[in-house]
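User: tokens in, sequence out, please.
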């Protein structure tokens, strides 16, 4: 949920907004081990991004973003949350 001055709405109800999932500690360890990288090597997303705010992500967290894809059915990307 993202809050404006006096309204609350779920940004994920819009068809163009991809699903955002906040990974827990065990999922992060598994992801990092299987792909052999460290978190800061991932693309960044600011903590102030509406999707990050909606899943209550804090700097240092990793978010899994699941987009609809016409060719692959779904495309999964990961983002490292930074200040901002």
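Assistant: Sequence out:
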């Amino acid at each position: 949920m993202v809050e404006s001055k006096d309204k609350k709405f779920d940004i994920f109800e819009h068809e163009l907004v991809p699903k955002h999932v906040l990974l827990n500690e065990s999922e992060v360890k598994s992801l990092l081990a299987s792909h052999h990288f460290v978190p800061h090597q991932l693309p960044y997303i600011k903590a102030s991004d509406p999707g990050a705010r909606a899943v209550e992500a804090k700097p240092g967290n990793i978010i899994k973003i699941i987009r609809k894809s016409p060719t692959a059915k779904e495309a999964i990307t990961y983002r490292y949350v930074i200040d901002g």
